[in-house]
Amino acid sequence: FDLITTFFPFNCIFAIIKLFNIKKFMNKIIILNGPNLNLLGEREKNQYGNFTLKDVEKSCNDYASQNNIKLSLFQSNVEGELIDQIQKSRNSQDGLIINAGGYTHTSVAIHDALKILKIPIIELHISNIYNREEFRHKSLISKVAKGVICGFGVDGYIISLNALNKFIKNEN
Question: Is 48 a catalytic residue?
């Protein structure tokens, strides 16, 4: 300790210790976005609004940096790539948020991959899926999710991050 204080003033040591503690206790959360979410801001603006996926990601990254969250973001139109990310999350994440898009209603494979996880999952939808076509009312993801957030527009991403971060903290 004497050698360290010779090179760094006390307040710097405190800052270094604080930095290491913050990194150590950051909740690691991944947000997975499924098919067509890369076209936010272009498609069905009456359902999804004018925000692009880049806008959503910036908002999520800003929230994460202010709330001690190490955030990963991934979007794919390919079911298998989403499943690969889910499987990788088993050992690298503390929680997962998924907006599976159209796969919500059809993908047994995504359901099965999520079922393997021992981390909390939030199912997210920008629109209220229960106010839309009948086929959208059925979710294959809900049964394996800790919670479902839908109908709050892109604000649902921040709502999900907040809820999942609190849940993880209370779990530990």
Answer: yes
Each residue's pLDDT tens digit, 132-162:
777 677 899 999 999 999 999 999 999 999 9
Among this protein's residues, is 125 annotated catalytic? Answer: yes
The amino acid at 161: L
Residue 147 has which token pair?
């919670």
120, 149 Cβ separation under 8 angstroms: no
Confidence of residue 172 (pLDDT cuts 50, 70, 90): low
Backbone angles phi, psi at 111, to 5 degrees: -55, -50
Catalytic residue among 48, 103, 111, 157: 48
Please answer whether residues 110 and 102 qualify as being in contact, where contact means their C-beta atoms are separated by less than 8 angstroms: no
Residue among 63, 103, 111, 125 flagged as catalytic: 125
Phi and psi (nearest 5°) for 144? -105, 0
